[in-house]
Every structure is written in C-alpha cells, then in structure tokens.
C-alpha cells in the first residue's frame, strides 16, 4: 500500500498547475533539465563559485544551507545581502503583487498579496531569476552579456539550443530571457515542489501523527491562530496546503544588530549602521506609489510558506530568530511586558489587534509545552519523508 500511495503523491505533484514537463512533452522536460543545469552551475557568478543553489540548497528546502549566517553571502565573500534568501520551493504558487481590500480574521484592513522576494518586488519566477545574477551583493555579474557568454561556453549549451533554437545564444537580451524561462521551468518542477512531507502522507491517510504532533496541529489550527496567515487546508484549485496566504505583514520583528551588511562600504550600503529595512514600503516607493500609501506598508514583509520551515533556520527576513521555538515564542509573547523583547525595527504598522486583549497575536497565552508541540508539528512539514522507513 505504501508504494501505491507514494506513486499517487508523485502523480499529484506532476499534475499541479504550471509544472513544466507535467504533460510528458519532451521539449518541456528538456527545458526543466536545462533549468536544473543552470541552477547548479557555479560558473555563473563573478568570481566563479556561486550558483543559484548556493543560496537555495535542495537539502534544506531550497533555502540557505549555512544556518549560522543571518543573511546570504555573495560570490565576493566579504559581501552580504541585507536579507536572507527565501526558499524557492512552492514559490510558483505566489500570485503577482497586488492590493486586496478583503478583511480577514485578525486583519481588519486589506493587505498586499503576492510577489516574490521578501518585499514582493518580482511578479514571476522568471523575473525573480534574473535579479541575483546581476546583484553586486550576490552573483556579481556586471551585465546580462556576461551571463549569456558563460552559458554559451557551458557543457549544456547544446541542450539550450535544443530547447530554444540553434541561434538562441546569439542575441543577448533574448538569451537572458530564455535563461530565466529555463530556471522558471525548473522551479515549477516536482523536484522543487514535491509535497512529500509527513503531513502530506498524513493527509493521504498513509501515516499517523504522534501525540505531540497532533497536539501541535490542533494548536496551530486553534488557540495559536497560526492558520490566519498560514492556512492548513488545500486551495480552491485542489493544491495541497501551502501554509501561507502570500500576504505581507509587519510583525514587529526586532533589528538584528550584527548584520554584516551594515559594515559594507558606502557604495554598497550608504546608510551604514543606520540602515533600516522598510521592506514592502520601500519597494512601493521605488515603483512610484504615493508616499502616504507606501508609508502604510513600511516594515511589512512577505508571509512565507511554512513548508520545510524545520530546516530553513534562521528565520524572518533578517535572521534575528535562530530557532523555530524563538519564532513561535515571539508570536506568543511579543506584547507581554515581562517577555522583554527588543523593539521593532520599524515600529509603525506593526500588526496588532485593534484592542489589546489576551488570545491575540503577541499575547497568545501559550505554555512552553504548547510552543514545543507547535514546533514539533512544524517539523512534519519537511519534504523528503519516507513512510517506508517508519515502524
């Protein structure tokens, strides 16, 4: 029975909307293989040595492998970004960034939904894929031409021409777009979006959760109200639970005082140690949104999926929370005076219940055991679970 269910789950993943190669088309499958080759190519940085996988390692849910770093390190080892790399697993399901006026439990006003990166600045996987190559704090290529010429000399250049045509690597701008298309195809593949966690097998009726996991699940969907931002039910399109509503919120996350980004030279960080990350608000200013509207989004960041959260430490955009227990306990006690949390990096727009009261975010009233149980449940969301190896 286990084997049949494993096959069934794999087939479900292949049938997900937007997964390249899902229809068995040979060209689409080659496009995914090309995207995978590009994703793991360590020659596509300057200096060479950093690939997409350097910050999106499959073994840790396609996120940062080195959990000791608060934010991502660049191809130039003395350079660091201002934020940690998010997992690209399940990013394919994020809609383009848009404002949704819908009122939700605990959110009495509308909010921005969607986009990729912590600030929602890319609307598609292809748009997202182009940015790290040219970021001086990441892969550090000076221009698209450098990337395309490297791909032109790569061992997989023949596969590129099979997918996009025999002269596809001649025209720089078009080839750069096609590199992004191949990466997008790979990031939509079942390898990156496997839905293979213990929780998925539990939903399929293959395995049972432990008592602690069940207690955590009940708290997650009940007293702790995690489901308000991290829904645990399948989508209307029948996609298994994604554990995010793709919204943006300011949770009052404290500043991390030891970010290596603060020490970069002025050409890379003009504000030095005075730098404040305004998140979505800053992105909206950059695309011309009026100041009064952009200011309402200061300090807000993308609500991430909780899939694979057990292996993607540290947490939140600046890595200030080192463990899952820290994250859950912050959500539990942020507004309790005795908890003595540091102040929010961006104090305006912090998500709070309009009337301070027990049982709301920041004063959930969870015991230490209940926090532990929620953490135990969150570990059931890690992909790669093998029910055949369990007693």
What this model shows, in words?
The protein has about 400 residues and is mostly helical. The protein has a single domain (about 1-390), classed as Cytochrome c-like domain (Cytochrome Bc1 Complex, Chain D, domain 2), CATH 1.10.760.10. It is about 30% helix and about 5% strand. The strands form two sheets. The chain has a two-stranded antiparallel ribbon with strand order 1-2. A two-stranded antiparallel ribbon has the order 3-4. The longest helix has 16 residues, at about 170-185. The chain starts with a helix and ends in a 13-residue tail after the last helix.
Assign an overall shape.
globular
**What's the average pLDDT?**
92
The third-level CATH topology is Cytochrome Bc1 Complex, Chain D, domain 2
Total individual domains:
1
Low-pLDDT windows of residues: 1-24
Task: Please identify, by name, the CATH architecture.
Answer: Orthogonal Bundle
CATH superfamily annotation:
Cytochrome c-like domain
The total count of strands amounts to 4
First and last CA, distance: 15 Å
How much of the residues is beta strand, in percent?
Answer: under 5%
- Percent helix, as a range, is 25-40%
Secondary structure layout plus pairing:
Blueprint: H1 2-14, H2 26-39, E1 98-100, E2 111-113, H3 125-134, H4 144-152, H5 157-164, H6 172-187, H7 198-203, H8 211-220, E3 248-249, H9 280-286, H10 291-294, E4 301-302, H11 324-333, H12 368-378
Antiparallel strand pairs: 1-2, 3-4
TL;DR of this structure?
With 391 residues, this protein is mainly α. The protein has a single domain, classed as Cytochrome c-like domain (Cytochrome Bc1 Complex, Chain D, domain 2).
